[in-house]
Amino acid sequence: MSETHAPEKSQRPLQSALKAKSDFLDYLLLERGFSPNTLASYGTDVQHLLTHLETKGLELTRVASDDIRDFLHDIHEMGISSRSQARMLAGIRSFFHFLRIEGYTDDDPTELIESPAHGTRLPDVLTTDEIDALTAAVDMSKTEGLRNRAIIETLYGSGLRVSELATLSLTRLNLDEEYLIIDGKGSKQRLVPLSPVAASEIRAYLDQRLSLPVHPDHSHLVFLNRRGKGLTRVMIFYIIRDAAVAAGIEKRVSPHTLRHSFATHLLEGGANLRAIQEMLGHEDLSTTEIYVHLDRSRIRGELLRHHPHFRPHTADKDPQL
Q1: Is 256 part of the annotated catalytic residue set?
Q2: Which of 215, 218, 233, 256 is catalytic?
Q3: pLDDT for the residue numbered 55
Q4: Does 185 participate in catalysis according to the annotation?
């Protein structure tokens, strides 16, 4: 016989991917004695993979090495740090090892997968303490202090590209409902929730912005320089770099570092991959009014549960501290 399909090769029937995940975690707890934190980490890693497979219409017992590479590519494109990529792959390796020793599948698609190199070109990821230090390091005695703090919080709290921040329009900003409408790459629009901390910082800056000599051609832009014109990407880079130097952060920090930190912190907190992709602008999203009102609560829920600056204890934090 030359049957080759994975479900017929499996020695035991697999009821569902979620059941396999549950059995795997029971195995780690009861037979390997893993700690609750490690169990939670492994469970999150496996769930990210299962979500990816579901969106691709793939069955767990049919997963091949190329499917794992595709998953890792998506993670890389989202800006997840190489260290986090390697950690996720380790959890997924353990999962497929479990499936094979339990007889659910005869093959391990992770065997030939190399761990992501730590020498990739991805920026460093800041810790939440470093994010707070970055914001605190802004010199508030200078006129542009309010603006610079608002820029940092918006980049980190919404995961924007630097070009998207530089071209952010007042008409795309809703501080009452705390969301942004972003015109991203390829003329694609997406809805991005705004953290309460960022909204508070932007309000303070906009009050000050009223006193600027705004240039008519730049009056629609949220963030302006002292002459009332829009900021360039280079200007924003120096704002972030100078704050990092003042904070004593030795990592290489740029606006893109904050975008990568946004994605990595959400992922490590357990947020759904699809929601992260949407917030980063890697999906072609609908721009209808119905989408704005219906999907906002779902995506915002991911942030409220998983992003440090959306959690309840940070909502009460005085942004001027």
Answers
A1: yes
A2: 256
A3: 80
A4: yes
